[in-house]
Amino acid sequence: MTDSALTIEHVRKDRGKTTVLDDVSLRVASGERVALLGHNGAGKSTLIKTILGLTPLTDGQIRIGDAKPGSAVARRTTAYLPEAVSFHPALTGREQLQLFARLDGQKADVPGLLDRVGLRDAMDRRIGAYSKGMRQRLGLAQVLLGNPKVALLDEPTSGLDPISRQDLYAIIDELAANGTAVLIASHALTEVEAQTDRIAILRKGVKVADDTLQNLSAQAGLPTRLRIRASGDNADQVAEATGGTRINGVAVEILCTPDRKMDALRRVAAMGEVITDIEMTPPRLEDLYRHYAREGAQ
């Protein structure tokens, strides 16, 4: 993953007197999966529209490979799945995908693609009878159709049940494994925490974080939660020895900064049979998101 399939450099977008994107830079390498997070109004959708060439920039530049957004080359190599996909309700899933294939000038295995996204039994039903989740699956089949170099997915799991969400991320993994750069705008923090290589966070049009989950956690310095279970009536003893807080009759909770975590674990281990169990919970993406997206974060 050395080459940058998507390059965003110092992008600024103004709407009248309002700056929607302010000096945003971001790179997504071939085969990389990057989550783009931010509150509603943070600028995620605007950034995606600038990548697609639908919204002109006020300043900065974007490249899809070496192509400009909106150019013929960029359109051929970029796939987009909006949150609310819309297709002709009178067409069947098969007919719609065949139409896209003809417009793209390729001979695609349409039944195979529809089977891959779980629409094998519904490919000859009219799209007007599809559920939102089924339309989302059809949109994903459209993304797969062109073997894109860059895939932009805006809330891709919207309307999908838990099993379908797992299937979708399996397909995203396949896209990345085949060299597609994937940018996922999402509010589903638990999902992207486990399914992406890097996290970028926008706040009011400014990029406030961009790194791996592990590095963001180290930079934030948020505490790790240790929950210790004591034997018998020893919870008070453990709480006093560790400086922890009693949670219930037998558990004690300690919050440790990254630089003190190992010392805390050694102290607990030295207590021997007084300790029956210990659970360690590092900061989760939701905690990091709150940290980086909070008012005044830089």
The number of helical segments is 11
CATH architecture of the largest domain: 3-Layer(aba) Sandwich
**Within the largest sheet, what's the order of strands?**
5-6-7-3-8-9
Question: Unreliable stretches, pLDDT < 50, 5 or more residues?
Answer: none
Helix content: 25-40%
Shape descriptor: globular
CATH homologous superfamily title of the largest domain: P-loop containing nucleotide triphosphate hydrolases
Task: Decide which structural class fits the backbone.
Answer: alpha/beta
Protein name: Cu-processing system ATP-binding protein
Domain ABC transporter: 6-229
GO molecular function, one term: ATP hydrolysis activity
Keywords: ATP-binding, Nucleotide-binding, Transport
Describe it for me?
The chain is built from 11 helices and 13 strands. It has helices at residues 44-52, 72-77, 93-103, 110-116, 132-145, 162-177, 189-195, 213-220, 235-242, 261-269, 285-293; strands at residues 4-15, 18-29, 33-37, 59-64, 78-81, 150-154, 181-185, 198-203, 206-211, 224-230, 245-246, 251-256, 275-281. The radius of gyration is 24 Å and the shape is globular. The chain folds into 2 domains: 4-218, P-loop containing nucleotide triphosphate hydrolases (Rossmann fold), CATH 3.40.50.300; 223-282, Alpha-Beta Plaits (2-Layer Sandwich). Helix 3 packs parallel to helix 5, helix 4 (110-116) packs across helix 5 and helix 8 packs across helix 11. The strands form 3 sheets. It has a 6-stranded mixed β-sheet, sandwiched between helices. A 4-stranded antiparallel β-sheet has the order 11-12-10-13, with helices on one face. Strands 2-1-4 form a 3-stranded antiparallel β-sheet, with helices on one face. Keywords: ATP-binding, Nucleotide-binding, Transport.
